[in-house]
Structures are given as C-alpha cells and as structure tokens.
Amino acid sequence: MSRFRMYPAPAQQAALLEQCRHARYVWNLALEQWSMWTRDKGATPGYVAQARQLTEARSAFGWLRAGSQTVQQQALRDFDQAVKNFYAGHHRRPTWRRAGLNEGFRIVGSQASRVVKLNRRWAAVNVPKVGWVRLRLSRALPAAKSYRITRDRRGRWHLAFAVIPEPIPAPGTGGIVGVDRGVAVSAALSTGELLSCSSLSDREMTRLKHLQRRLSRCRRGSHRRQRVKAAIAKLHARATDRRKDWVEKTSTDLARRFDLIRVEDLRIVQLTRRPKPQLDRDRPGAYLPNRRRAKAALNRGILSNGWGLLVRRLQHKAAGRVEKVKAAYTSQTCSVCGHCAPENRESQAVFRCTACGHRANADVNAAVNIAAGRAVSARRETPVRVSPKRELQHATST
C-alpha cells in the first residue's frame, strides 16, 4: 500500500470529517442489522437491499443527503466484503467504528484516478464533496483504481492507494538467514547482527507518564482533557512512525541480502492475550495471583517491537522466500553440538552449552538454529508436543 501525507485546508478538514462521520454511520447501521440476526428470523439484508435502504434514507434526511453517495455506498460494499471475509475465516468479526479512532472512507472507480501532479513535490486529489486537496509526493504516484483517506489520532490526514508493490528480486547468492525476534533485542540475525527497533527516548517516556497522570485527573468532557489526549496521541504516533520506519528498512535490507529468510512460527495473538482470572477455591469470591501486570509489560514489549509487522512486510517484499520454522527449543539447543537443555540458557543474553562448552549470544544462537530450519527438530530422537505455555516461556526468554 502506497501512502501519502495530505494537507487539507481548515474548511476541507471539516468537510473530510463530515464524510468520515457519514461512512461510520452507514457502517455501524449495517453492522447493527447484521448483529440482530437470530435463527428464528430471516436472512439479514445484503448489499443490494441496504443500498436501496440508503437511497430511501438520503431522500428522507437532509444531513445524509448532503454527503457523498459514493462514500456511503462504498462503506456498505466494504462491510459486505468484511462479512464475507469473516465467514471465509480470513478476518475477524466486523466491529463498531468509533469517532476519533476509525476516521476514514474509501473511494473506488473513476473518482480514484482524479489525481493531478502539480510539481515535483506536490499533487492534488479531487475528493467528492470536498474539492481538490493537496498531498506531498514522497514517491511516485501509482496507477490505482481505489484509495482510502484516513485520519490518525494525532490529526494527520493520509491518502493510501490500494496497490500491491512488486516484490524485491532475490540476490541469487544462495544466502540463508535466521531471524530471532525478542523483547530486549528486537531481531537477532544468524550472521551475528543485533537489531533494535526505534522507540521513544527516556525523556519522551517520562513525558508520556506525566501526561497520563494528568489525564487521570482531568474531568471527562473538558477542554483540558482533550488537549492532554492530543499530546499523548502525538507521542504514540511518533513511536508508531519510528517502528514502521524500522520495519520497512529492516525488511528491505533482508530481502535484498538473502535468498531465504527463516523466522519463528509464533502465534502473536495468543502470546499477547491477557491472563484469565483464577478463582481461589479456599476463599470464595477471591482470586489467585495471575501476574497480570508482568504479562501486560511483556505484551507491550512484544507489540512495540513489531514482531508481526516485520514478518508481514518480509512476506510482501520477499514473496515465496520466507519460511516459518517451529520455535520449540531453538533457544535451548546448542547450535554447534545440538545438545538441548534448559540449563544451556545461562542468562537473558548468554548461552553456554553444558555439553561442549560453546558460548555465544543467546539470541544469535537461537537465530542460527532458526536458520538451520528443520535440522534443529531432527536432532531430537522423539518429537515433543509443545504447549502454549512453553511457547510463551520461550517468547519471554527471547
């Protein structure tokens, strides 16, 4: 997806927000109809029936008629496709769109091609019911049939074209690399390189904690609370931009240097789930300690290092050259002699084999095992069933 920064005028920002409200209203109304289905009722209205209902609603309500029909109908098409993807098992269940969080709409068809290049740095796009909005040319304009306009929490507007970029060709050197993802070290390569994802500095983290404390003392609905939330969103957006920039540069570098890239097959959604409360049988109504705060810190570390985003971008840029291997025992197995024991992991960063005495960085040793692929699992005489708890322990150690 090719994304560009938009710079709308104040009047255009108000018009864009109005289009976002209309698209969100139509989406939530379609979701409400779909959610009210029960077995004793008939089938819920599909796209054709909902488009007919939208025409009747536009004739009855002037505020809805003032918006773009193209935007509103496309919201119905997007919801219909989301429902199909949910039933096919490709995506999760469609959820409600909230103001301030899900601000955006999509344009498909002849309207999407109305982009004019003004000069070397600037272009303009003709948005329905808004007019010509300027955008910064950070790369070449693609020949796309659709685009999506979004607004993030910081208030920045972006224009994203739905195009699939060409994959990066393999160098042809036959090189294989293993990538071990962790929390202390974002990515360790089997070549010995240790890569760290850029995040907020210590000074920025201190300011973020200060703003969060101020937010807890602000009255709900006040202007001060809105200003503090905007300052917090600015810091979070800065961290997100740095993480995406690191992922893009790292994935491009790996796709250009190696023919085959092997990563751990980690189920990140399951790894980042919050622990379930456990009832105390001896004390009715009480719960046992489940280390919720420690697990929350681990989840923040996993998500802030972009584990899933790195693999997805590698699969896009090095299509067909990314292989997932089992993560079991890669951090406990010696990459020299193949001895596997929990005692080999001396500490977070040091690996020392109790059989041959091999010493190395723990993350690099795991990356070498990942680069070996199935040879690591073949060293064990009997296959071992790996539980989600053991997989979580491995992710914690890495």
How would you summarize the topology of this molecule?
Elements: E1 2-7, H1 10-35, H2 47-60, H3 62-65, H4 69-88, E2 103-108, E3 115-117, E4 122-127, E5 131-136, E6 146-151, E7 157-161, E8 176-181, E9 187-189, E10 194-195, H5 202-217, H6 223-257, E11 260-264, H7 268-271, E12 278-279, E13 287-288, H8 292-304, H9 307-317, E14 322-325, E15 350-352, E16 359-361, H10 362-372, H11 374-378, H12 388-397
Model description:
The chain is of the alpha+beta class and 398 residues long. The protein folds into 2 domains: 2-161, no CATH class; 167-279 and 290-398, no CATH class. It contains 12 helices and 16 strands. The strands form 4 sheets. A 7-stranded antiparallel β-sheet has the order 2-6-7-1-5-4-3. Helix 2 (47-60) runs antiparallel to helix 4 (69-88), helix 5 packs antiparallel against helix 6 and helix 6 crosses helix 9 (307-317). The longest helix is centred in the middle third of the chain and has 35 residues, at 223-257. The model is unreliable at 381-392 (pLDDT under 50).
The poorly predicted ranges are 381-392
Indicate how many domains the architecture comprises. 2
Based on secondary structure, the structural category is: alpha+beta
What Rg is obtained from the alpha carbons, in whole angstroms? 25 Å
- Helix content, binned percent: 40-55%
Could you say which overall geometry the principal axes of the C-alpha atoms support?
Answer: globular
| Total of DSSP H or I helical runs spanning 4+ residues | 12
Sheet-strand content, in percent, reads 15-25%
Distance between the termini: 31 Å
